[in-house]
# Entry
Amino acid sequence: MPSSSLPLRERPVAVRKALRDQSLDGFILPRGDGYLGEYVAPSDERLAWLTGFTGSAGLAIVLEDKACVFSDGRYTAQMEEQVPHDLWERRHITLDPPQQWLGDHAAGKRIGYDPRLVSPDQLAAWQPREQAPEAQTRFVAVEMNPVDLVWQDRPTPPASIVTPQPLELAGESSAGKRQKIARELRNAGQAAMILADCTSIAWLFNLRGQDLEMLPVAQGYALLMADGQAALFMDPTRFSQGGDWLEEGIEVYPPQELKKHLHAFTGQKVRLDPATTPAWFVEQLEAGGVTPVLAPDLCTLPKALKNPVEQEGHRKAQALDGIAMARFLSWLTQHGIGESETALAAQLNDFRRAAPECAGLSFETISGVGPNGASPHYRAEAGKDRVLTPNSVYLVDSGGQYHFGTTDITRTVWLGEAGAQPPQHVRNAFTRVLKGHIALARARFPAGTPGYRLDTLARAALWEAGLDYDHGTGHGIGSYLSVHEGPQSISPAPRPTALQAGMILSNEPAYYEPGAFGIRIENLLLVRENDVKGPRGPFLEFETLSYTPIDRQLIDTALLTPQERRWVDAYHAETWRRVSPHLEGKERQWLETACAPL
# Structure
C-alpha cells in the first residue's frame, strides 16, 4: 500500500472536505490510472492510498455520510482484511454492482469523477438503472481529482528510458503494422485512432519501457493517422539514442501538445476504444468540433495473434520457466518446510532470475500456504504470512518477463511428513481440477468458436461434485507485454471473440475451500490449426507450452479415465524430455520421480 504521512483513517475525511469545496456530494474512484491498464505506478495507486485495498481491480465511492469499496471474487477476502470496516462497506462488484449502490444512496446527488481515469464504458455502466429523471445520479467531471489534492506526498510519476523491441523479436516492423491498421481506418472513413492502452502503443511501435514494475511499457498516448503516419506523446528526452531507432513516419511530441493535435481534426471522425481510452478524450474531441467514433482498438486483435517469431519466443520463454519451476519444486521438497510464504516466493523468484534472459517478473508471485491459498490473488506480506508446515497444501502462481515472451504458471503441491498422504477430500478436489485442465488442453473445436463455449469443459468434473470457482478459466498472454491480455478469454462471461490460431491463453481451473486450502493448475496454451476439416471449415486445437510436473501425490487415479491417465503420463514424459537435460544431481533425481508414470 502506498505510504503517506496522512493516517489511513483520516484520508476519507480529507477527501470529503475537498468534495465540499467543489460543491460535490460524492466521488467515484476507479483503481486504474490515465492509461486504464491493470498495472499502475505507485504515483497512481489512489484506490490503495484512500482505502487500504491493494487488489488489481476495484473502485470506491465516497459520499458525505457513507462509503463503499467494490471488487470481484478474486479479492473479496482481501477487501475484508485490508479495508477498515467502520469506514467502508465492502461489495462484490458483480453480485452487488456500483450502479445499484448509487441508486440506493446517491439518487439526485452530484457525484464527481476524474475523466482522465474513467472510460466511456465505465461511465455509462455507473448510471443507476430505472431511475426517474429527477432522481438520477448526476455525474460531474472534475478538473482536479480530490484525492490528488489531499495526497500531499504522492510519489513522482515514472519516466523510464524508452527502448526498441528489435525486429528479430517483434517479428514484424512497425511500418507493416501501421499500414494494415491505417487501411482499416480509411475503409471506415476515420481520420485517425487514439491509443491510450500502453500495450497497444508498445506493440504498434515496437518499443518497450520500464514505467511499471511488472509490465515493460512506456506510458503515453499516440495517434495513428489514416495514412499510416503516427504521433507519440511522450517526453522526447526519454527515448534511447534520441529515438533514432524509431521507424519513418513516427513523430514524438511532448504530452502537453496532445490537445492541440486532437483539435486539428475538426470536422473529421476520430476513433477511440470506449473501454481502454479515458473519457477526457471524448470531451476534448467534442470541444474541438471533432466527431468521436467509439469502436474497438484496432491493435487489440492483431496483438493477440502471435506471429511465428513471437510463438517461437514464447516456447523459449516457457522452456526457461520450466527449468526454474523444476528447480524450485525440487528445492521445496527438501527445504520448504519451515519457510514463510514470502521466503518461498523469493526463492522461486531467484531461480527464475538465474536465467540471464529473464528481465523480471510478470506479476507479483502468489505464494499461499493452506487457507491463504484459498484467496485466488493472495499477496503475502513479510511478518504477516504463514509458515509452510508439514501436511500442508501449498499454491504458487508466478511468471516471468523475457524479451521474447511472457510466462504464467500455477502449481499446487502437498508437503507431507514421511508416509503422510493428503486427505481424500483434497485429492478428490485436486483430481477434479486436473480433469478439467486435461479436458480443456485436449479440446478440439471449430474455427469461430468463442472462448466461453469451452469454459464448461474445465468445470464439468467439479460441477459433478457440487464444486466451482469464481473466476475465469483462461486469459490471454502478451509477448514481453501484459500477463493478462485480450480480447480472447475462456470464462462464463459470454464474450464474443472467437479463438484464432496464434492466440495464447492460460488454462487454470481451480477450487478454493475457504479457511482450508486452494487448488489451481495452470499451463499456457497456443491455439493452432489441426488436420481435422469440418463441413464448415477447419478445426482448432491447443498446443501446451508449459512443462512442469503436476503433483502426483494429489492425484486420485481412480477418478481418472484411461484417456486422462495417458494424458498425464504423456505430459510428464514430455516434461522429462524437455527439462531433464538442464538439471543435475538431486534436482534431476527429483524430476525423474515427479515425472514417473501413474
Remarks:
- The longest strand covers residues 523-534.
- DSSP finds 18 helices and 28 strands in the chain.
- The CA atoms of residues 434 and 521 lie 7 Å apart.
